[in-house]
Amino acid sequence: MLRRSKILAALAAVALPITLTGVSSGGPPAAAAPPPAPATVAATAYHAAAAKYGVPESVLLAVSYAESRWDDHKGSPSTSGGYGPMHLTALDPSEVADLSGKQKVAKAESLRTLYKASDLTGLDPAALRTDTTANINGGAALLASYQRSLGLQVGAGTSPAEWYGAVASYAEAGDKVAASGFADDVYSIMAKGAARLTNTGQQVVMPATAVTPDKAQVHKLSLPTGVKPATSNVECPPTLGCEWLPAPYSEFGTAGDYGNHDLANRPKTGKIDYIVIHDTEGTWQGVLNLVQDPTYVSWQYTMRSSDGHTWQHVKANDVAWHAGNWYVNMHSIGIEHEGFAPQGATWFTEAMYRNSAKLVKYLAAKNNIPIDRAHIIGHDQVPGTIPSTVSGMHWDPGPYWDWEHYMDLLGAPIYGHSIFPVRPGSIVSIKPGFQGNVQVVTNCDAPNTTCTPQATNFVYLRQSPDDNAPLVKDIGLHPTGIDGTTDVSDMGSRAAAGSQYVVAKRQGDWVAVWYLGAMGWFKSPAKTPDAFAKPGLVVKPKPGKTSVPVYGRAYPEQAAYPTGIPYQTVTPLQYSIGAGQAYPVGDLNIETDYYRAVTFAGQPPTDHVQVLGKDRYYQIWFGHRMAYVRAADVDIRPAF
User: Fold this and answer.
1) How far apart are CA 176 and CA 444, in angstroms?
2) How many CB atoms lie within 10 A of CB 576?
3) Which domains does the chain have, with CATH numbers?
4) Three-state SS for 450?
């Protein structure tokens, strides 16, 4: 139904310059006396700033990691106007133009930490924006000032446990719940430790430091308490501080139409198998306005880019209209993340990644959803329902969403081990290494233009083992049969991080996998692989079958429908699995069902009811999206 298809906002794609990973800021080393490795530049800056301002180095490193993962973005601001590895913010008058009184003052103060840092350090604001060492000093000075404002000591001898209130203050949050959530993140990072190459190729290492912070310090902050989910209408983890902004369930128009979701009683009316990661293709206020319009689409949650603040709109037991596939809607929860897919890192902030991961872990535990890339999926993995809808399916969150980091935050890292050989018959998991993986992408800003380089989450697949070979074809996206393209929205020739495939051939550094019924080649050298063999199950056509159809939904057979409920035709997609091909299993235990919900009142026995079928399906990895196959058509086998 058209009213259930997502309506896109216009793409206002403005890509910001991002430095290519691994490029050192210095020249080539001299033969006689090589300069210090780039890692010492950042390491020395954090060490020196911590000593100068009396901040425990572990606190400074962990705060910076929580804000930016130690990246400096070469002077480009985040969506909330934050600069450098310490995310020092500079006031943007447009951000406060619509506010007034105390609200405007508070908002303005939270957006000018860069100027506070300038006052504390005597450093020029321009240097704090663009110079990494200056920025780190500014962040250290801020932390020390927050510590003093709480009447607490600074200095080399202070324990990291005594800095909880200062860390919570650094969040510049609107209430104590959000401030505590940020501080808890920082201390979790500190306890685990971290090591990473920054976007300028500098190695930073933070040893694990487990402490028990004095959380009572947060009560000293001059902030409102905030609403905890346990005492509100939202379904969120306690540390997230969500708000309830309900999507309307109401009739409108003259034809008995209604919007913008369907009441249900999940899991009794259909178990929840997936959490779908979207980006909004619009700014948060416009999106919040959209979800409150009964004539438009809906989703369960919206998350703001600048700080990860979250609103819930639809209860998890009800069915939101977000995926463009009714079967997936029936079995999923949708989370919209403020941002524009062609701009990527500009919008996908560390705060948003971390809060999104908190929410997903909570929802997965509550609804028994496996935390893996077959069940925590992008909107770009949702299949078309029938052949005619395939080309119009969505591609968010797009090529710049960091699936590797996101799955790490979820505690389910993408498989990246070399225990098994990559050979024909193996299942391989794609893990190209996000930070160093800068692929050519086009048309982010305008037609026939190359996008500003930034890290991507995929590898391209080619028709033969040659860097100059054309990209593989996707007859669903390109029905005329043209080759795949590098267009930012063209997912048809990409293998994204965490996706799984079965190896068809191996030739030197090149690996061919079964992809959309054909072979796709990508380079994966043994010393620097992009694909890792893993155990698992695969589907193969039953003996004697020359091809097997694939489907975009697992609807019941005609005999399952009771009187009064029209049969929903089971229509295969335009793809097929040929004899000798194999595809990894994503889930063997999906429901064959159809949730009938077409009227507002929902009168049983023919409306707001689940039709269950006996014809079994399996979810499989198929090309760049998931798909379904009938169990009667395939055999299940362990991968070689």
Assistant:
1) 39
2) 17
3) 38-220 (1.10.530), 227-399 (3.40.80.10)
4) strand
